[in-house]
Amino acid sequence: MVEKLIQRVQKTQHGFLDIQKAADEVFTGHTAQESFRLANQLYISEIYQARSLATFIFGRLAANSNKSISFLKEHVSKDKDWRVQEILAKAFDRFCADVGYEDALPVIKEWLADPNPNVRRAVTEGLRIWTGRSYFHDHPEVAIQLLSQLRNDENEYVRKSVGNALRDISKKHQILIENELLKWDITNKQIKQTYKLASRFLHKTKG
Questions:
Q1: Angle at which helices 156-170 and 140-148 cross, to 10°
Q2: Quick one: 127 and 163 in the same domain?
Q3: Residue 33 has pLDDT above 90, yes or no
Q4: Is 161:123 a contact under the CB 8 Å cutoff?
């Protein structure tokens, strides 16, 4: 079973849709216990597509499995392949969607405060476009507050993700983003980098 799954997903060289489809098939065709076991077996593979598949499966299980959400945070976040990190972001968003974004807030905040930048980025990137998600659609100020607290993050990739996520939100909530950015100390180089990304559409609208 594991070898067949690996052979299937290894054919995917670009994108992730078939890998995601394979994960959905595993999840719907097996018990949670069986799916978790398969995911663990897949994750020890040296083939990144197999680890991506495992990550998707853990994401499907996470809403009802503390072991799965913990595996994503403690193990997948340390994967050296950037493509697996992209799937981690999608898996975290799946967890939030299944739990409900408002109910997931404690876990969102916990991950945003994690010392591992890949954990933080899984949230900032995974939930984009934030205000396209339920709860944040009606409470954009909460999304802005959560993202803005990482404006001076020590990791450049996290800062870029934060800036781009705030830029996304500015399309429909220009005034909220403008008011938030007014509070920022852009004499700080790291904050200025995030500011430039977050304010990109604001500058265009003003000509």
A1: 160
A2: yes
A3: yes
A4: no
